[in-house]
Amino acid sequence: MKIVYSILGTYNAGGMERVLANKANYLARMGHELTIVTTDQKARVPHFELDPLICQVDLAINYTDDEGLGIFKKMMSYKRRQRIHRERLEALLLPLKADIVISMFDHDVSFLHAVKDGSKKVLEIHFSRFKRLQYDRKGLWKLVNTWRSAQDLVLARKYDRFVVLTHEDHTYWKGLKNSVVIPNANTFSVPARAALTEKRAIAVGRFDYQKGFDELIAIWKAIHARCPDWKLDIYGQGPLKADMLAQIHALGLDGQIALHAPIKNIRDAYMHSSLVLMSSRYEGLPMTLLEAQACGLPMVAYACKCGPRDIIKPGKNGYLIAEGDRADFADKACRLMEKAKLRQQMGQNAWEMAENFDEERIMRQWLLLFERLTKGEQR
Fold it and tell me: Which one of 2, 160, 183, 305 has the minimum C-beta count within 10 Å?
């Protein structure tokens, strides 16, 4: 099959980019013809390695150049970029004659479904139904995001299939007969789980509002008071790094929390940790929980929309915490730090439960979806 993925760029070290690389590489190894179309790559190399057989095309739309513009200038520029985007994408797709074209729910979502190139169109969302409303913007931006959130439901109906990552999110897209749940797969597997003996917790994610590391740093103040010999390592990058460093210093946690740049072999960092913590305000299906579980780490996470509820079974492989309940978060984390036997049992459960997200199992679901679409089956 000829399969096309459309995404803003592959240069980020994010979970969506990692998932795309894994799927594209898997499909390319099977002999399918893969093309990844980007809009804002700007000649940057992909952060995650891609099979050399995968064709990469950048349309040079550069939506990110408009960051920082006021709402009215941004809207005018966006309209112009959308027109150019559609023209260039159609010019690529029409002669390509792909079997399947997949939008990663980015700037092409408003028009890709209408491109008459003969392919089946799939919309794949890596966040939740409430993504836009969770940005917590004010004023005109809040009105814009409320309108766009309503439009998301309208647009999702126009695709041959709409893929969500979690059963939780599936319930929020009410009335969609074209929707299906296919979770992300594990990024890796390990022959033996982490030892869970090092007094080290780990968190992974972009340093931005979504990941809520300001919450985690505040929580660590209480954790440090109760479990002072434990350390927290946070891996990531992003615009809030300076704010995070200032907060760490203000709380007297220098030397207790360390910020690290992203590393490609993140598995080693998990394997030398004993607990994963996640304080996100919203997610899609958090790769950090899947990766930590694959290494046999117990998990403590806010029960945000969406993802943690599909991975964590409270009391079995970790704990789900009501959003904003810092005291309970600290208590559950400390419980795992203090009780080695409990930590080991939950880690063993996590390692075994990682099988639910095995790559072969997940990719079979994708291949079955593609097969049904190309044969014209409705479901």
Answer: 2
Going 139 to 144 to 146 to 149, the CA torsion angle's sign is negative
Cα 341 from Cα 348, distance rounded (Å) = 11
pTM of this prediction?
0.87
**pLDDT tens digit string along 327-340?**
999 999 999 999 99
Torsion-angle region of residue 101: left (phi > 0), alpha (psi -120 to 50) or beta?
beta
pLDDT for residue 333: 98
Q: Going by DSSP bridges, is the β-strand pair 2-7/179-181 parallel, antiparallel, or unpaired?
A: unpaired
Q: Which two tokens stand for residue 216?
A: 């985690």
Mode of pairing for the β-strands spanning 2-7 and 33-38:
parallel
**How far is 129 from 109, CA to CA, in rounded Å?**
15
pLDDT digits (tens, 9 = 90+) for 23-75: 999 999 999 999 999 999 999 999 999 999 999 999 999 999 998 888 889 98
What was the pLDDT predicted at 188? 86
Is residue 311 classed as helix, strand or coil in its secondary structure?
helix
Q: Say how far apart CA 36 and CA 104 lie, in whole Å.
A: 11
CA distance to 71, 95, 125, per residue, from 130 (Å): 21, 36, 11
> What ranges in 251-325 are assigned the alpha helix state H?
266-271, 287-294, 308-311
What is the rounded CA–CA span in Å between residue 266 and residue 253? 24
